[in-house]
Amino acid sequence: MSFRKVVRQSKFRHVFGQPVKNDQCYDDIRVSRVTWDSSFCAVNPKFVAVIVEASGGGAFMVLPVLKTGRIDKSYPTVCGHTGPVLDIDWCPHNDHVIASGSEDCTVMVWQIPENGLTQPLTEPVVALEGHSKRVGIVTWHPTARNVLLSAGCDNIVIVWNVGTAEELYHLDSMHPDLIYNVSWSHDGSLFCSACKDKSVRIVDPRRGVVVAERDTGARLCVPSSWLDGRFTTGFSRMSERQAALGPVSWGLCG
């Protein structure tokens, strides 16, 4: 007679981390409680940005990396959106430039002062309007300057030229359902997307074609950074947490 295992075996089961002291943490930040699948945080060598609760619109806080400890509730924020902020991403080519996507259907790009914020920042460098529904994903191109990708709940992906505030590529026929996440390849020639239809796609935005596609059969599959292959995380058909790695030639992770 066999019995089902109640506890799954894991070599990490009894591994515990040591928490740092309070004065080395960022304390008393009112992180946003909006229902969206986002990390609500972005970091670069100079600043930490955190999406926070805000009344009458959306906001995020930008702190110098070394400014740890309790954060005053009156600390200035970036607060130009009229709806909650859903995603933020630092520019890889300029540590003072950050992009944000919001429920107000816009993407905004901000210039953070050299020493951080001393007063609320309400005017973006540029506002990008092209989505008809809330924008939940913003991600900068890894190699080309002033190139930003956004994806909205209208199932549309737009690649922008931030310098001119113009659309470079408007991809509106590749995703039949909500886009969960997007990740550029290391050279920026392709991007990988995870969709609610349980498919992961490799897209060439310049040609406007899906290079490869595969139905994962998973509830959720989030593509992460990839080089010659592709790495995804999500859930199996049995709702078990999963990670998968596969070459681009497969079409998708398997």
Automatic annotation (TrEMBL):
InterPro entries registered for this protein in UniProt: Coronin, DUF1899, WD40/YVTN_repeat-like_dom_sf, WD40_repeat_CS, WD40_repeat_dom_sf, WD40_rpt
Any one of the GO CC terms: stress fiber
Lineage: superkingdom: Eukaryota
Keywords: Actin-binding, Coiled coil, Cytoplasm, Cytoskeleton, Phosphoprotein, Repeat, WD repeat
Residues of the DUF1899 domain: 5-69
UniProt KW Coiled coil keyword: yes
A GO biological process held by the record: actin filament organization
Compartments, record wording: Cytoplasm, Cytoskeleton, Stress fiber
Pfam families: DUF1899, WD40
Intervals holding WD repeats: 78-120, 128-170
Keyword Cytoplasm: yes
Molecular function as annotated in GO: actin filament binding
Chief location category: cytoplasm
Function (record text): Regulates leading edge dynamics and cell motility in fibroblasts. May be involved in cytokinesis and signal transduction.
Subunit structure: Forms homooligomers, but does not form complexes with the other coronins. Interacts with Arp2/3 complex components, including ACTR2, ARPC1B and ARPC2. Binds actin.
Family per similarity comment: Belongs to the WD repeat coronin family.
UniProt protein name: Coronin
Taxon lineage: Eukaryota, Metazoa, Chordata, Craniata, Vertebrata
